[in-house]
């Protein structure tokens, strides 16, 4: 009897669920406010295809293919629109847009304190102002000796490998370098990745976190199924977030206990010096340090690795870059690569931009939601409340109608319009579509630091080494991406230029 009752109950619940899903699918295909936007019908009905693409690490590539089929705006999931129009950057992320659109899908890392990445309004402005001193031009040039020291360690490891005639995974070495740099600057911690030629356990934990964020974001987007799907996120992944936050907090506490010390020049030097201007709570310092370690590491390593890859397969661009570096450095008395000397290298800047265009470090879209009770206009479309929108970087940077010879590595397209090397066919490129650091009040705070750091690392590497690819493992089209890239090794053969 009990079994029969149970069976009836199960059939009843299953039927009700089926009916609910069928009615919801019909609504999403007929009456939903986004019904007029193009996209595959299955994506209009369910979030599942987009989530599945995320779990496979293929979202940026799948969204790119959708844009190629459906045009500049695509309904990639029931409530999710992806835009590629250059004007969408300002419409979604610009100063005006911030009034009606809020960040969406960024989970709160701690209940009692939010980092600037997930804070809003006056809280965001206060935090951003406090941190901006540590990213000013002055702070960047004050960091040069510390950067030079880390880069020297990077070069020393590469020298050792090249003398041993081993093939080097320069992609991993760049990751070691970027973690050592930001670990020291934002957490006063020596990860020693380069010294030990291995990931510090904390860094290994973070790499797991990058993946966790994508899993959790996609699970949470599945509505009533979310709690069930969260059960499948492995415990060690969720623990990686907690452990990272705990260890970051401990490091910040230790650094604050040292206080303002003239022998230390790191991010906290600037925070401690400027505490008069409505500083940060201790909790905010702790969560921001945790976020900086994530935000400031992999994107830098990815941008340089991607650029090196494209240089390796484009010998003419590679030679031109070597010529530029050699020309600037040999004309100097000390013959040392410095931040000042890289400012006289326009082609290195162009190569990094072109590398990030074809291989953006953040290939996906940063989501914003039209706030409750508001509407928003994006690329000429009026959008109702609760619509989630984003500009996906990989699709936007590689569309044929944004960039001529869109899939070719042509750094010259970033030279000034009147430069003799600028190809005429690139003069109509939609350069404003390329925003790897985003735009508006929440754009990348580390943009200036990133360019200075990337140029210094790349110029130093090329000044000291000749390189060529050792294999085809770094096939970009086959790579996966979970918030950041999950990239394969970039193995190169190195030859020292000055023995
Ligand atoms: C090539 C390197 C980098 C790229 C492409 C990049 C890209 C971005 C993007 C697209 C955002 C906006 C995120 C959003 O809207 O959710 C962002 C935010 C941010 N980035 Fe970067 N980033 C890079 C390097 C760095 C570095 C080196 C640091 C610091 C050490 C840094 C610190 C930050 C911070 C603090 C934010 C949050 C800003 C705010 O919310 O006001 N980034 N970055």
Short summary:
The protein starts with a helix and ends with a strand.
Annotate the secondary structure layout.
Layout: H1 2-30, H2 41-45, H3 48-55, H4 59-70, E1 73-77, E2 80-83, H5 87-93, E3 101-103, H6 121-132, H7 137-142, H8 144-163, E4 168-169, H9 170-187, H10 193-196, H11 201-220, H12 226-230, H13 235-258, H14 267-273, H15 282-295, H16 298-312, H17 315-330, H18 339-342, H19 346-358, E5 368-370, E6 376-378, E7 381-383, E8 388-391, H20 393-397, H21 447-464, E9 465-469, E10 480-482, E11 484-486, E12 491-496
Parallel strand pairs: 2-8
Antiparallel strand pairs: 1-2, 3-5, 4-12, 5-8, 6-7, 9-12, 10-11
Can you put this structure into words, describing what you see?
- The chain has about 500 residues and is of the alpha+beta class.
- It has a single domain (about 30-495), classed as Cytochrome P450 (Cytochrome p450, Orthogonal Bundle).
- Helices cover about 55% and strands about 10% of the residues.
- The chain contains 21 helices and twelve strands.
- It has helices at about 1-30, 40-45, 50-55, 60-70, 85-95, 120-130, 135-140, 145-165, 170-185, 195, 200-220, 225-230, 235-260, 265-275, 280-295, 300-310, 315-330, 340, 345-360, 395, 445-465, and strands spanning about 75, 80-85, 100-105, 170, 370, 375-380, 380-385, 390, 465-470, 480, 485, 490-495.
- It has a five-stranded mixed sheet. Strands 4-12-9 form a three-stranded antiparallel sheet. It has a two-stranded antiparallel sheet with strand order 6-7.
- A hairpin with a 2-residue loop joins strand 1 and strand 2 (about 80-85).
- Helix 9 (about 170-185) packs antiparallel against helix 16.
- The radius of gyration is 24 Å and the shape is globular.
- Protoporphyrin IX containing FE (HEM) binds near residues 295, 300 and 450.
């Amino acid at each position: 009897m009990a079994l029969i009752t149970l069976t009836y109950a199960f059939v009843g619940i299953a039927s009700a669920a089926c009916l609910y899903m069928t009615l919801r699918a019909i609504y999403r295909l007929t009456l939903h406010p986004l019904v007029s936007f193009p996209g595959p019908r299955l994506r209009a009905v369910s979030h599942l295809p987009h989530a599945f693409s995320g779990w496979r690490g293929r979202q940026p590539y799948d969204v790119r293919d959708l844009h190629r089929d459906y045009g500049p705006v695509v309904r990639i999931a029931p409530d999710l629109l992806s835009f590629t129009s250059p004007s969408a950057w300002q419409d979604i992320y610009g100063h005006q847009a911030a009034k009606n659109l809020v960040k969406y899908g960024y989970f709160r890392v701690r209940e009692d304190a939010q980092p600037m990445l997930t804070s809003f309004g006056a809280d965001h402005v206060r935090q951003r102002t406090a941190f901006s001193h540590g990213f000013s031009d002055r702070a960047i040039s004050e960091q040069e000796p510390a950067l030079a020291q880390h880069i020297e360690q990077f070069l020393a490891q590469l020298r050792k490998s090249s003398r041993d005639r081993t093939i080097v995974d320069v992609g991993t070495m760049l990751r070691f370098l970027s973690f050592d740099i930001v670990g020291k600057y934002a957490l006063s911690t020596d990860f020693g990745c380069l010294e030990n030629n291995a990931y510090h356990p904390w860094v290994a934990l973070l790499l797991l976190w990058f993946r966790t964020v994508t899993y959790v974001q996609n699970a949470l987007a599945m509505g009533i199924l979310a709690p069930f799907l969260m059960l499948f996120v492995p415990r060690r992944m969720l623990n990686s977030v907690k452990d990272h936050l705990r260890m970051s907090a401990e490091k910040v506490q230790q650094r604050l206990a040292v206080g303002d010390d003239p022998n230390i020049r790191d991010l906290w030097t600037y925070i401690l010096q400027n505490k008069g201007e409505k500083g940060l709570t201790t909790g905010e310092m702790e969560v921001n340090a945790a976020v900086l370690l994530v935000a400031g590491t992999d994107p830098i390593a990815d941008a340089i690795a991607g650029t090196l890859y494209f240089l390796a397969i484009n010998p003419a661009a590679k030679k031109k870059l070597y010529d530029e570096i050699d020309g600037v450095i040999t004309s100097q008395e000390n013959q040392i690569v410095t931040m000042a000397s890289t400012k006289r290298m326009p082609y290195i800047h162009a190569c990094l931009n072109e590398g990030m265009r074809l291989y953006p470090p953040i290939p996906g879209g940063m989501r914003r939601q039209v706030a409750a009770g508001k509407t928003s206009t994006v690329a000429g479309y009026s959008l109702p409340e609760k619509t989630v929108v984003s500009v996906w970087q990989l699709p936007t940077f590689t569309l044929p109608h944004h960039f001529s010879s869109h899939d070719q590595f042509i750094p010259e397209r970033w030279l000034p319009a009147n430069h003799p090397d600028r190809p005429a066919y690139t003069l109509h490129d939609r350069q404003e579509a390329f925003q790897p650091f985003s735009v508006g009040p929440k754009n990348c705070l580390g943009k200036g630091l990133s360019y200075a750091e990337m140029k210094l690392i790349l110029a130093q590497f090329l000044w000291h080494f000749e390189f060529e690819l050792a294999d085809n493992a770094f096939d970009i089209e086959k790579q996966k991406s979970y918030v950041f890239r999950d990239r394969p090794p970039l193995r190169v053969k190195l030859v020292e230029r000055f023995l």
